[in-house]
Design brief:
Length: 134
């Protein structure tokens, strides 16, 4: 372990693609990960490129909108997909897919929040208890 790497453990929600806060190049890995969460067209917007906290904020908003979209798709699947001629087995698989995607998006949202907090704090370890995440 390098002398600059933090010795505390990270939250299980910390994204594995992002180095620990305080370690060498951690902010670079954080911004790369955050940019990957956004549509490609946002890569050229200078405020998001220059200000990592703005990038994190936008990624947070983007993920929350995706969560809402998947919830709507999940909640309306049984009523709307049959009218589109989708077979019952496909509907069930689609519902399972949406449920898995909601779990993944929830993990992403928690990771974005932790990265944003670390960027704002400029490096303290993003450890949190279950009570703090609520």
């Amino acid at each position: 372990m390098s002398p600059t790497a933090p010795t505390t453990s990270l939250s299980p929600d910390w994204p594995c693609q992002v180095k620990s806060p305080g370690s060498r190049d951690w902010e670079r890995t954080a911004t790369r990960w955050l940019r990957d969460l956004l549509p490609a067209r946002y890569a050229g917007y200078s405020p998001l490129v220059r200000h990592h906290v703005l990038l994190a904020r936008h990624a947070q908003i983007q993920v929350q909108h995706e969560i809402r979209a998947v919830r709507v798709a999940l909640q309306t699947s049984r009523a709307e997909l049959p009218t589109l001629g989708v077979a019952p087995a496909v509907i069930e698989n689609t519902i399972r897919m949406y449920a898995m995607e909601l779990e993944q998006l929830g993990r992403l949202a928690r990771g974005v929040r932790l990265v944003m907090e670390a960027l704002m704090d400029d490096g303290p370890s993003p450890r949190r208890t279950a009570a703090q995440r609520r």
